[in-house]
Amino acid sequence: HCSCGPRKLHEFFADLLGYNMSPLKAVIVPGNGGGNVEYCNWYGWAKKQLNKVPNFQCLLKNMPDPITARESIWLPFMESELKCDEETVIIGHSSGAAAAMRYAETHKVYAIVLVSAYTSDLGDANERESGYFSRPWQWENIKSNCCCIVQFGSTDDPFLPWKEQQEAADGLGAELHKFTDKGHFQNTEFSELIDVVQKMLTTT
User: Fold this and answer.
1) Which residue numbers are catalytic?
2) Which of the two ends of the chain, N or C, has the fewest CB atoms closer than 10 A to its terminal CB?
3) Angle 41-56-88 from CA coordinates, rounded to 5°
4) pTM score of the predicted model
5) Ranges of each domain in the chain
6) What CATH superfamily is the domain 9-200?
């Protein structure tokens, strides 16, 4: 069955819907910005660590439309190129977390792991143009389409008020890992993330 800490009711239904015993791959959906994502933040490091896990693979690709990160471009790319499906753990950071949530509203995935998630455009024109924040979040759809939802957030994030991060956690009933010193999670390593994914691979 699904393994993501204490089992929730929607996980039992996920079992009935025929979810795999454990996921087969992870996909890292990065935050917006330019440059090669392999060398950005912890993305390349995490990919390397997760690719060491037997019978498991981690995908990380440069996204199209990397600056504005439009939903209309990113979600089709996640479906057709990254093949995010019910055997996939989507790891989404910042804009990638917004993309992961919107994707899970309409697609079954094994899990979403959100890093620096938020729920509004924060009054920013670029965020507004991305399209993710044009309508209410369908929390129940996301929960029913995921076997497991984990969220990492930090109270000292310079870009995101804690209120936004907590709102996402509350809406999703996420397993929340709350920090006070991680900022926007832009370190080059992220061992807590690896631990969470490895826990999903160890069913009880």
Assistant:
1) 94, 157, 184
2) C
3) 75
4) 0.92
5) 9-200
6) Alpha/Beta hydrolase fold, catalytic domain (3.40.50.1820)
